Fold Aldehyde dehydrogenase.
Amino acid sequence: MAPTTATTTTELSPPARAAVSGARRVFGSGDTRPLAARARRLRALRALITENEAAIEAALWSDLHKGSGEAQLTEIGVTLAEIDHTLRHLRRWARSRRGPLPLALLPARARLVPEPLGVVLVIAPWNYPVQLLLDPLAGVLAAGNTAVLKPSELAPATSALIARLVPRYFPDGAVRVVEGGVPETTELLAQRFDHIVFTGSGTVGRIVMRAAAEHLTPVTLELGGKSPVWFDDDAHLRQAARRIAWAKFTNAGQTCIAPDYVMTTPDRVPALVDALKEAVADLWGPDPRTGDDYGRIVDERQFDRLVGLLEGTEVVVGGDHDRSERYLAPSVVLVPSSGEGSLAVGPDAAHPVLRDEIFGPVLPIVPVASAEEAVRVINGWDKPLALYVFSSSARTRRLFEQRTSSGAVVHGAGLVHAAATGLPFGGVGASGIGAYHGVHSWRAFTHLKPVLRKPLTPDTLRLAQPPFTDGPGLR
Ligand code: NAD
């Protein structure tokens, strides 16, 4: 049963400058560095989630009509798994290691000492407002940093709840929340941070990177794009269609790694459409609007944009919508083909549904002549965040792996790589900079500092100092 009440608060956020200087003060105290203190804060983060699951579910329901099952799986469960994985491995990751030295520098010893960066800003989007805020936070705390969190103003119930809970679970101010939209984020970005993790659109990603450049602050940018699917696995048509539909229509398609469009050969299109129709009915029932498991579009602006995308397409599954509750059915569409020679998907495509990231429950099927042509389509544009391949041919799977570039490749499924805590999660090119999750978060928020100690005697450095009678000696 979906929760029915949402938590709201009228508490005011502290201004950006106060949040940053407060977090810097806590970092400066040194209290975030010991491993025991890092583990204590990770356990506090865990408790923040487990002790408030009902309130979190209610907020997600209010913001996105996200049902309890989906909230547990994609927000609460993944984040807890990330925290537990981090707690399990932290001691090993944080060990300082011996650093290799060339013979010419001996006698000397070097160690690689991991040290925290300082104050990290985490800016999150609205689509997974818990996971995409708290999952990076686990890595930030594990690495011994303090954090300022900026939840999305477009998920207001979740944002308010987090702003209310964080001071209770981090009373020393090691983690602070600044709520708000563009003006508040702009004010935050004017401050100096030691790292910024941004998840959102490429357009705002560029704004964040420009602001970060002012302070030479390193960034992790988790962006979006059009993640393609290739399908030719006739032997597993129904299973493949079910997995494609699940990956696409979870959270009403508002997932950065959702399949954006499916490419297949023209002869396979009718069977794939039928299988997708059956899969949608199996997963969300004959009328997804009446169930608790199918989400809603975040706001009217996005709703109007998505309904607009249906215009000029042939809607073969779904298509029904209701603005009063921002409901748009899981929809599959066919698009009239582009002119001869132009790529089916990309900046010159015939229809906007094939030009812009869809980020909603509209799935175009794009007929292409062959897997090689699909590779050409993918390579004709920005590198995607994810690529999904459903093929029974090892040769075809290799073709996509070796001849395209994307944040990740998944064969036979969609979305699942985001739940693999040991794998780096991130984009490449226009889909992002850097990666996180598990040890990759810890690395992203840690500086690996070489500490070298060379005894003053014997004075072997004498060989590197002038006068060079026989040439420099440190080779
Ligand atoms: P967005 O870029 O509009 O907003 C993200 C954050 O930036 C929000 O907190 C918002 O308040 C802030 N923001 C918005 N405009 C700003 C401005 N002018 N200056 C400063 N800050 C600003 O993104 P969104 O609509 O919340 O999310 C959708 C996008 O995020 C999609 O492109 C999607 O693919 C991407 N996304 C990526 C991932 C990933 O892990 N790579 C995950 C989820 C979403």
Observations:
- Residues 123-127, 132, 150, 152-153, 181-182, 185-186, 199-201, 204, 207, 222-224, 256, 357, 359, 385, 427, 432 surround nicotinamide-adenine-dinucleotide (CB under 6 Å).
- The chain is about 40% helix and 15% strand.
